[in-house]
Structures are given as C-alpha cells and as structure tokens.
Amino acid sequence: MQLFDVYPLYDIEPVRAREVYLWDKNGVQYLDFYGGHAVISIGHGHPHYVGKLTAQLDHLGFYSNSVQIPLQKELAAMLGELSGYHDYQLFLSNSGAEANENALKLASFHNRRKLVIAFNGAFHGRTSAAIAVTDNPKIRAPLNENHEVIFLPLNDETALQHAFQRDNICAVIIEGIQGLAGIRLPEPQFLQKLQNLCEQSGALLILDEVQSGYGRSGKFFAHQFAGIRPDLITVAKGMGNGFPVAGLLINPKFKASPSLLGTTFGGNHLACAAAVAVLEVIAQEKLIENSVKMGDYLLSELQKIKKGVKEVRGRGLMIGVELEFASDAVRKKLLFEHRIFTGSSHDPNTIRLLPPLTLKQEHADRFLESFGAVMKNL
Hints:
By secondary structure, the chain is α/β, with parallel strands linked by helices. The chain has helices at residues 35-38, 47-59, 70-83, 96-111, 128-132, 157-163, 188-201, 269-284, 287-302, 328-336, 361-376, and strands spanning 14-18, 21-24, 29-32, 89-93, 115-119, 149-152, 169-175, 204-208, 232-235, 246-250, 309-315, 318-323, 340-341, 350-353. It folds into 2 domains: 14-45 and 286-376, Aspartate Aminotransferase, domain 1, CATH 3.90.1150; 47-284, Aspartate Aminotransferase, domain 2 (3-Layer(aba) Sandwich). It is built from 11 helices and 14 strands. The protein has a 7-stranded mixed β-sheet with strand order 4-10-9-8-7-5-6, sandwiched between helices. The chain starts with 13 loop residues before the first strand and ends with a helix.
C-alpha cells in the first residue's frame, strides 16, 4: 500500500527536536519558526510535558467517556482559570475541525436555525459544516454544498449590518486572527459590533481560536483584545503541543443533555495529560508574557526591513510578512540555505511566522539576520 499523495513534501526528514530546534536524519539543525502549523506552543520535547505524558502512559493511556476521567475536570478548571472563562463549560474532542463542527451543531441545536455567516479568507477545518464555512471552494466537495452560508468581507461593518437584516441567522463564526488567509486581524470595533448584532438577533457568536489561542497573540485568546465574550470558543493546535486534542468552551446558557455531543477519543487520559502539562508550563514559565515581548520585538525589527516587504501584520508570536512578490523563493532560501522553517499562506506573498512561545531573543535575532540577508540579496 502507498500513501495517498495529497501533501507537497520537502525532502527533509526530522528525527529529533528540542525547544525551538529540529534535527534531520543527517544531523542538520533547523530553527523552527513555524511550530508545525502553530501546534508547538511550549517547545519541542519540554521535560515537564514528556514527564507528564510518560507517567500517564505508565498508568493508563485510554478509556472511553463512559467512565470517570478526573483529568478532564482538572483540565477544565485550569483552562477556565488561565483563560478567564471559569464559568464556561468544556467539551473535549480531537481536532480544530471537530471543535468547530460541534460549535456549529450546538448553535443550531440552541436556536433551531441553519444560516451561518463566515468571512472571506476563513479556514475552519475539513469536516462537513467546518468546510462549508471555509472560504476555499477547491476543498469543498458537492456533499458539503448543502449548508446555508453567507461569506462577508472581514471588517466591513456595512456588509455585516446588511446581512443581519435577515432574521434566520443561526451563528457567526470568525477567527480570532485569520491564519491561513495571511494573518488578517479583525478590528476590535468590528468584533464588538458583531457581538452586539448577535445578541440583538438571537444568533450565536463562535470564535475560532484554534490557531490564535493559547497565548499566541499575547493574550490567552486573540478576541480578548476586543473585550468581548463569545458564546462558543474553539481551541486545538497549541492545546496539546503536538498531541491531538481540542476543546469547545461553552457559555453557561447552553444546557447539556445525554448524547447531545459525543466522541470516542476526545478527552482521553493521554490527551488530558498533554493539555494539562501545556497549561502548567504556560503559567509557570509566563509564556503569554514572553509572546508579547518577543512578538513586539519581531514586529518592530521586521518593520525596519523595507526592501521587498509590503506589510508586516500580527500580534504576539502570530506574524505575517507580506512581500511585494510571491514568497516561495524566500521561504526556500530560509529553509535550505539558512535552515529555518517558516509557513506559507493562501496569500502567495505572505510568510507566516508561528514559532513556539518559548522563543528567545537569540532565536529571533538569528531569524531576523537570515531574513534580512535573503531580502538584501534578492
């Protein structure tokens, strides 16, 4: 049997990783400025994380949600405390797509409506409803086209106001920061307007914090810069530092009932151990504060590079560098000549920077020196 060939692959085989570095099978070291799609939040191979997972595996790796799993309650309490959403409820799943799927389903259960508003450039996952609210027709099969979805321009209050003339809106789903679109930030006043319109109409506000959550933006959630409290918040990626785990934070106005939502693997013992370890490290090592410090430094220094750079966008350690031309050649030079991983986006000109939140200035300086050299020598 062969693998189903859907991923364009670099000819690099990482075999080991620590902190912000990876080593390939030939012993070549790489600086990780992408974190595997923003997944690596507390650095590769963090000893506390490894120890917690190892100890849990030694006791019990998995049993289903038909039994008591105290780790789930421990995770929920810690997540509520660190995020500021202690009064919300937590449903655990496996991926960001599944978290968004459950958020959309729960919203529809709540108000019995179907129509969803999403935004141009959005990416919310590859399950049925999640892909329907993703702005990429190339990955949408005919099966996914039966959902009722309106796409609006991001930050366009006039278009938003016009859309809310309808009285059948189930939910609005929006990313705290659009990642795959090239690091596009919703304006605080736009999010505030959105929340007000949802409250007035009975629609539910879903904040997709799958990529922008867990301290990456400089707050626990990126939407907290706007001072809003959504009805539903989805998390994944940085939540498990590489272990598949996701969550849906649910406003207390939603009432649970048996079988309303369900999952086989979500909230298993190993997943919860990983997620608890991540939160412990974030708190103990003050990684959200570090995200602010290092993000501000990178943004400030990147804005000084004028040649070939059109715009630098972002918050914390979620940064987009939009070039005046396609970024592919620059990314390849960074990877194969300077040994630095960076990310692409659906905007072909934009490079995404999503390093671990453990980033230090020496790492930032190495990237800045390398990026500056590449741009200077184009």
